[in-house]
Amino acid sequence: MIMTISALDFFKRDVTLPNQLDGLPHKLSDVTGLQIGSFKTNDGVSLNYWKAGSGEPLVFVPGWSSNGAEYINLIHLLKDKFTVYVLDQRNHGLSDKVKFGNRISRFAMDLHEFFNAENIEKAHLCGWSMGCSVIWGYVDLLGTSRVEKFVFIDEAPSIYCHSNWTEEERINAGAFTTSAEMMIDMYYGRGTCNMLQVNTDLFNFYNTIDALAFENSMALCDQVCPHDKDALEQVLFDHILNDWRDVLINKIDKPTLVVSGEHSNWVESQRWIAQTVPNSEDLIYGKHEHGDHFLHLKMPQKFAGELTEFLNRMS
């Protein structure tokens, strides 16, 4: 059974964001019609999602550790053109924290059950980082019949690098670690590693320098659904070890936009996706445009405009 409630009633308060920016919400209440929905999966997990707007369904699947609060600017900008959904995946955001089902395949089934719960016949699907992997897992299991268009934001087809790959294979896959365990320990500050084990400067860009919109969305996240680091760790091992190139080569058959930036460690793999998937194109943000892993959250107005243009374009 599905339940929805207004965001203000759900949180029992309004939230003021630190920066007042033209065209973007300064308070949670500025996002008119924002609702928080929930449903139960077939393994008994309560998942929440953010919803606003009207029109064609546009479903965002956030990356690892991300949630609907971080998408508040994009929800606000897009709700007059689409029915916008942001799914808080299990162990993320407002959803249940559980010690089972922490695999990309289960997350993909959760996405399928979300479609069923909301009676979404067809939608645009936009994934970011691990959210792309969840979508690729969904396509692998269930196909593309319920998808209008795909948007993939800066996710390596394979994070893990096999020792017998050529350098060309590594670059096309976007691989940047030879040890899932060392990468997880680095993420959690439990040890050090060298560039042969984990080669990324991703977290150098996890900041709000000259990115006031991102500062606002992160402030909302901190206030209403702070990260649960213990819960978030459990899916990482499975996420790191998947290789999705076969899905990209064989199973993505709808118009696709691939978005990345010049600061991304795996921008060449994003170009490879756009060259490999039929009827696809890439959009590469420059370094001066916050062209890093968080580009859509740092430049929400630019991204919303370009996303809308792509989704509204006749295929």
Q: Keywords for this structure?
A:
13 helices; alpha/beta; Rossmann fold; 315 residues; nine-stranded mixed β-sheet; 9 strands; globular; AB_hydrolase_sf
Count of DSSP E strands?
A: 9
Uncertain segments are none
What is the CATH topology assignment? Answer: Rossmann fold
- The SSE order reads EHEEEHEHEHEHHHHHHEHEHH
Computed over alpha carbons, the radius of gyration is: 18 Å
CATH architecture: 3-Layer(aba) Sandwich
What is the helix content? 25-40%
Question: CATH H-level name... which superfamily?
Answer: Alpha/Beta hydrolase fold, catalytic domain
- The percent range for strand residues is 15-25%
End-to-end C-alpha gap: 35 Å
Q: Order the strands across the largest sheet as they lie in space.
A: 1-2-3-5-4-6-7-8-9
Major sheet characteristics:
9 strands, mixed
Count structural domains: 1
C-alpha geometry: globular
Structural notes for this entry:
The protein is α/β, with parallel strands linked by helices. It has one domain: Alpha/Beta hydrolase fold, catalytic domain (Rossmann fold, 3-Layer(aba) Sandwich), CATH 3.40.50.1820. Helices cover 35% and strands 17% of the residues. It contains 13 helices and nine strands. A nine-stranded mixed beta sheet has the order 1-2-3-5-4-6-7-8-9, with helices on both faces. α2 crosses α13. It is globular, with a radius of gyration of 18 Å.
Task: Write a compact overview of the structure shown.
Residues 57-296 form the AB hydrolase-1 domain. This protein has 13 helices and nine strands.
Topology, please?
Layout: E1 3-6, H1 7-11, E2 35-40, E3 46-53, E4 56-61, H2 72-78, E5 82-87, H3 104-117, E6 123-128, H4 130-142, E7 147-153, H5 167-173, H6 180-187, H7 212-224, H8 229-233, H9 236-241, H10 245-250, E8 256-261, H11 267-276, E9 280-285, H12 295-298, H13 300-312
Parallel strand pairs: 4-5, 4-6, 6-7, 7-8, 8-9
Antiparallel strand pairs: 1-2, 2-3, 3-5
Helix pairs in contact: 2-13, 3-4
